[in-house]
Amino acid sequence: MKSGIRKAVFLGVLLTKVIASYFLVFAPTNARIAKARQEIDQKNSMLEKLRHATSKTDDLQQANQEIRLSIEEIQARLPSSKEMPDVLRQVTTLAAKTGLDVPKFSSSDKPILTGLAYEQQIDVEIVGDFDGFYGFLLELERLPRISRIPDLTIARSKNVDGAMEAKLTLSIYYEGPTQP
Fold first, then answer.
1. Per-residue pLDDT tens for 25-54?
2. Can you give the CATH number for the domain in which 130 is found?
């Protein structure tokens, strides 16, 4: 019997060592491994997002370059304040070229600051036939300068049969004296 008890005690000690090593060594090690795997997965997903974002930098640089070129193109269309009299002469020349009379042509004294550019508003009265006025508008649209017509009134002429009178406000954008 002594050998049976001895064998049982020995078997109990062996089982205790196995169970104790599981709880004291293997379980904490498995928990650390699981935590490390979770951190690795998280870092891999962050790395994949970073790779995806950096793959777009070339596209963003190209888009920025295109935007920069567009801005330069628009700024090239803005005359300087010194060129404004030439632009005004071009407008009156276009009206005369299309067979229109310009009895009133006056610009406002104060330009309006609109962003990085200034806006010069010009009040114009034009008398003539509608076909000439339409041609004037087409030629005005083809000018290389940025302009708009915020206010336009067309009426049949009371003095001349078959003619029209137009009152319009022409806004021409130009670069100010100093650029930021």
1. 888 999 999 999 999 999 999 999 988 888
2. 3.30.70.60
